[in-house]
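note to self: dont lose this again. the chain is below, predicted strucutre after it. 274 aa total, dont forget to put it in the shared folder this time
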Amino acid sequence: MTVADLFRVGKGFQVRDANANKKLLGTAATEKNADKAADKLATLKLAEEISDLQNVLYAGREHKLLIILQGMDTSGKDGTVNGVFGQINPLGARTVAFKAPSTDEKNHDYLWRVHKEVPGKGEVTIFNRSHYEDVLITRVHDWIDQAECKRRYAQIRDFERMLAETGTVILKFFLHISKAEQKARLDERLADPEKHWKFDPQDLVERQYWDEYQKAYEDALQATDADHAPWYAVPSDSKTQRNLVIASIVQEKLLSLKLTYPPGNPDYSKLKVE
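---
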């Protein structure tokens, strides 16, 4: 069984399932300092291997890798980008953070701004939030009704299938944080002036809809999980364990592609550097 198998969202998935005390093979999911240090070291090694594999992916220009990170505020999307993908050569990697849509974006269909950001051949693109906001916050606040939400699930499935059929490898991660841990992280930001830049008062507003968001996530993940675009529910109260799980799944997927450098150019053997 792979790490991906352990955290894959299945039929009947419920958000509370992501809180289960799953353990990464050989590593206890605890916050003890010794275990945190071991997790960080293991993640660093995986991040370096991911970086090496990304170089081959970029050179081969055959596959495209799309990483989608979704989760409640403070669940660790930025931390995941830094901890798991911080070693990647920026030449072939991008992070796209989707905020509230602009006026121009609102004048187009909701997938318009997303489609133009998907990776090209050889690229790794990381979505910090994504098109899933259009079936999450919009549903929680009743900006769309249930019928429209179901239409969007179908459109998202079609969109992701098209990406997969044209060479994009898709990995979707739901970073699940508990309500208590979110409170602790928000309190920490408020208590430290040097972390005030991270704080958004709107986070407190959205926190009031906690239960509604949990239901919206359950529905969205169940409706859009597919073998070509799988969802993984990653318990994220532990930052180090979160990064280790995600790094392990990404590394497994890249290895499964059996990436190789393109053939050398025989004409180059005739060249001489004076």
